[in-house]
Amino acid sequence: MTKYIITGGVPLIGTVELAGAKNAGFKALIASLLGETPSIIEGLGQISEIELAKNTVAALGGDCQQKLKNFEIPREIGGKSRSSTMYVGPLLKKFGKAVLPVPGGDKIGARPIDRHLQGLEALGAKIKFDNNTFFVEAKQLIGTKYRFRKNTCTGTETLLMCAVFAKGETVLENAAAEPEIDDLITLLNAMGAKIMRTDARTIKIQGVPNLHGVNHTVMKDRIEAATFACAAFATGGEIFVKGADPSVLTTFLEKINEAGGRWEKESDGIKFWAKNPLTATDVTTAPYPQFMTDWQPMWTALMTQADGESTIHETVYENRWGHIEDLKKMGGKFEFYNPKISNPEEVYNFNLEDDNPVNFHAVKIFGPSRLTGCEIEINDIRRGATIILAGLAAQGKTTIIDSNDQIKRGYEDLVGRLKKLGAQIDVII
Question: How far apart are CA 126 and CA 352, in angstroms?
C-alpha cells in the first residue's frame, strides 16, 4: 500500500519526458516469446505492469534468453492482468496448448473476452472453461476470415500473435486501429511476420513457420502525454512534454483547442499551458481515432475547473465512473443521465448484455467547482492519476490511499516527475 499526501494550489512548470507506452511495452515482451532467438525490447516504462509480464514469463520457465518450458500461467500471476489471453499465441506455438486464468486488471467494467475466444475458435483452437480457467488446444491453427463484433485492442493483439503462425491467410475485420496495435505489427513484421493493414480496420496476415528475435523500441505513452497536459491546465502551469506526438493525440488536442487550452508543437514534443480559465467542452469516448476512454477520467477532473456545463458520454465501458464519487467528495458538481440512443448496438462498444439498468452512460459537469482536499482510496490506474490531478488543483491537502499500488502499474514514477515540476506530494509506503 502507498499513501500520497498532496498539497494543492501550486502551478506546475518545467519539462517532463514520456516513458514507453504501457499498452505497447508489455505486449512487446509477450510478442518477443514468438521468436526463435532472443529479442531486445527498449524504451520500456519502469512500471509494475512490465514487471508482471516478466514474472509471467518466468512462471512459464523462461526469460528474455530462454525458451518457454511450461504452458500454464499460474492464477496468482495471470489473474492480476488483462493480458493473460495474449500468451495463447506463444504457448500454442511451443506446446500446442495453453492454460490461462480469467484476466484481471482495473475495475472499470466487465471487459469481456468473448471477442478473443470466438476469434481463437475461428482459427481452429479448441477451448474449454472450468474453475475460472481456460484450456486452449491447437496443434496447427488455420487461417480464416474473422470479423470482430466490436472493437477490442487485446482481442486484436491476441489474434495477431496467433495468426502469424497459422497455416495460410488470416483476415481480421473490424480490428482495432489504436497506435499501440501498429507498434505491435511493426515489431512482428521485423521478426519476420507478414502483416498488412489493407484499410483502417482490416488486417491481413500471411502465416509463416517461424519468427526471429529483433531489436525494438516501443512507442511513447500517449496517456501519459494527456495526463501531464491536464496537470498543466488544472494548475495554471506550463509543461513541455518531451516525446509527445501530435499524430496520436489528434482528438485530445482538438478538445483542448475547443476548451481554450494552449499547446504548441516543438521539434521533440509539445508544450501545454493555460493563461485563462478553460471553457466547458463536451466529449464522447470511442475507439481510436476518437477520444480515448483512458483520457476520460482525467478530462472529467479538468472540466470541474472549466467555466460552464460540460458533458461526457462514455461509450467504451458500461460503468467507468468510479472517479465521479471521488470528485464529488472533493466538491465537484455532477448529474448522471442516459442520452437517448436509437442505435445502441452501433454506438456502444461494450456488450449490451453486460450492461445494467442502474448504469448511467453520461454525466453533466457543472464548473467551475472549488475542490477541497480529502481522503480517497483508489482502485484503478487512471482513477488514481485523476485524483492526483484533482488534488493538485484543490485547496488544502488530499490524501490518496492506493492499496494495491495501481498507479505504479501504469506510470513510471509519476509522483517523482510531478514533484520535479513543482508539485508538493509526500509519499508514505
Answer: 26
- Parallel, antiparallel or unpaired: strands 308-313 and 333-337: unpaired
Domains 2-19+221-428 and 22-217 share a fold: yes
Residue 47: all three cell numbers together: 512500471
- For residue 227, the SS3 value is helix
State the Cα–Cα distance between residues 418 and 393, nearest whole angstrom.
13
CA distances from 340 to 224, 298, 345, 352, 359 (A): 33, 25, 13, 15, 14
**Distance in angstroms (rounded) separating the CA atoms of residues 383 and 387:** 6
Question: Residues 239-289: pLDDT tens digits?
Answer: 999 999 999 999 999 999 999 999 999 999 999 998 889 999 999 999 999
Q: What is the sign of the dihedral through the CA atoms of 158, 162, 164 and 166? A: negative
| Across 329-335, average pLDDT | 98
**CATH of the domain spanning 22-217:** 3.65.10.10
Q: Return d(Cα 356, Cα 360) in angstroms, integer.
A: 9
CA distance 203 to 185: 10
Q: What is the pLDDT of residues 94-151, one digit of tens each?
A: 999 999 888 765 444 445 688 888 999 999 999 999 988 889 999 999 999 999 999 9
Q: Which residue has the cell 506530494?
A: 425
Say what the alpha-carbon torsion angle 245, 250, 251, 255 is, to the nearest 10 degrees.
Answer: 80
- Give, in order, the Cα–Cα distances in Å from 162 to each of 148, 193, 209: 15, 11, 12
Are 82 and 103 contacting, i.e. CB atoms less than 8 angstroms apart? yes
pLDDT tens for 232-244 read 999 999 999 999 9
Neighbours of 164 (CB within 10 A): 27
- Which class in CATH covers the domain with range 2-19+221-428? alpha beta
Per DSSP bridges, beta strands 2-7 and 397-402 are: antiparallel
Q: Which own/partner pairs from 64-71 qualify as long-range (CB within 8 Å, at least 24 positions apart)? A: 64/32, 64/38, 64/39, 64/40, 65/38, 67/94, 68/33, 68/94, 68/95, 71/95, 71/97, 71/98, 71/99
| DSSP letter (8 states) at residue 86 | G
Percent of the chain clearing pLDDT 70 (strictly above): 95
For the chain, the domains span 2-19+221-428, 22-217
CB 363 within 8 A of CB 338: no
Please tell me the distance from the alpha carbon of residue 293 to that of residue 313, in angstroms, as a whole number. 10
